[in-house]
Design brief:
The chain is an alpha/beta fold and about 300 residues long. It has helices at about 10-20, 85-90, 95-110, 135-150, 165-170, 180-190, 260-270, 285-295; strands at about 1-10, 35-40, 55, 70, 80, 125-130, 155, 175, 200, 225, 240-245, 280-285, 305. It is built from 8 helices and 13 strands. Belongs to the zinc-containing alcohol dehydrogenase family.
């Protein structure tokens, strides 16, 4: 049981409210990201004790949604908060990191050397295009990619105002997704101007922006990992190896019970940075109402948080 000190907003929150996404019964409490202080633990809990400051993944229902003062979550979804990080800063780390690890381990099928019990062998592309790198998930994925593939050429699409920030997280070269010459620009940034070996699409861009598939090297593995956005899988051109992934796929990944422990360790070792800047909406119902309205309209390059 956690006394929530800060909760972060995700697109899933407004989709739950507006469309019933992941809602099993009404009324319900939204919120899947948050941080706080442990107030009580079950008899079999071993990783945390009462008084620990934590960040966690929550579930959107009346007992476990993070948009409330007290919420219950599972030990596997918890990581201890570093003393140097505020509750607001860590509130939005869990879901994007967890999903990024799933995206690499299941979506691209890479190794995950930092994950206890995780895969030690896997796909090793020499170049990867991260689509939507300035989102929280995108910025988390860039960091995990750099840990997994330290020698790979990591390319990314985002709005130009975010290019410097994602470069600081590990991107080698960024591109404006709206550039009319994007395909040529991406290919020129790869060895021999052949194109990329893998794409990880974190915003479902491939559904409408079909030219993204032209950035693949014609003689390469053409691996495409697409995050589930609530819609059917994106159809891909012939020859492209596509995998859809979502956080809920974790049972399929070796070592998934230790994903949050790996985040805890990376934070403690200063090997993981704040993916995107936070914007604190303040305390109480007004902050949460404003946050939901903002996330409905779309927020670029910021993680919205509020305090119950």
């Amino acid at each position: 049981m956690v006394r929530v000190k800060a909760a972060a907003f995700n697109p899933a929150d407004w989709k739950s409210i507006d469309h019933g996404h992941r809602v099993t019964e009404w009324p319900f409490v939204p919120g899947i990201d948050g941080s706080g202080i442990v107030e009580a633990v079950g008899d079999k809990v071993e990783k945390v004790v009462v008084g620990d400051e934590i960040l966690a993944i929550f579930s959107p229902n009346d007992r476990s949604g993070s948009f409330q003062e007290i919420a219950i979550t599972h030990e596997m979804t918890v990581a201890k908060k570093p003393a140097s990080w505020s509750f607001e800063e860590v509130a939005g780390l869990s879901v994007c990191y967890f999903t990024a690890v799933i995206g690499l381990g299941i979506g691209l099928k890479t190794s995950l050397p930092f994950l206890k019990g995780g895969p030690r062998e896997g796909f090793e592309p020499s170049s990867v295009l991260v689509v939507g790198a300035s989102s929280a998930l995108g910025a988390a994925t860039v960091q995990v990619l750099r840990l997994v593939l330290p020698e790979a050429r990591i390319l990314a699409t985002s709005s130009p105002q975010h290019h410097d920030h994602i470069a600081s997280l590990g991107v080698d070269k960024s591109f404006d997704r709206n550039s009319p010459s994007l395909v040529e620009e991406v290919k020129r940034a790869t060895e021999g101007s052949k194109g990329v070996e893998a794409i990880i699409d974190l915003v479902g861009a491939g559904r409408e922006e079909r030219y993204l598939f032209e950035t693949f090297a014609s003689d390469g593995p053409q691996k495409y990992a697409q995050v589930w956005t609530g819609e059917d899988a994106i159809e891909v051109p012939s020859g492209v190896d596509s995998t859809m992934f979502k956080a809920g796929d974790f049972p399929e990944l070796q070592g998934s019970q230790n994903i949050m422990l790996s985040l805890q360790n990376l934070l403690a070792e200063s090997k993981y940075k704040l993916p995107i800047p936070i914007y604190n909406l303040g305390q109480g119902h007004t902050g949460f109402a404003n946050g939901l309205e903002m996330i409905r309209k779309g927020v670029s390059g910021q993680k919205l948080v509020a305090n119950p």
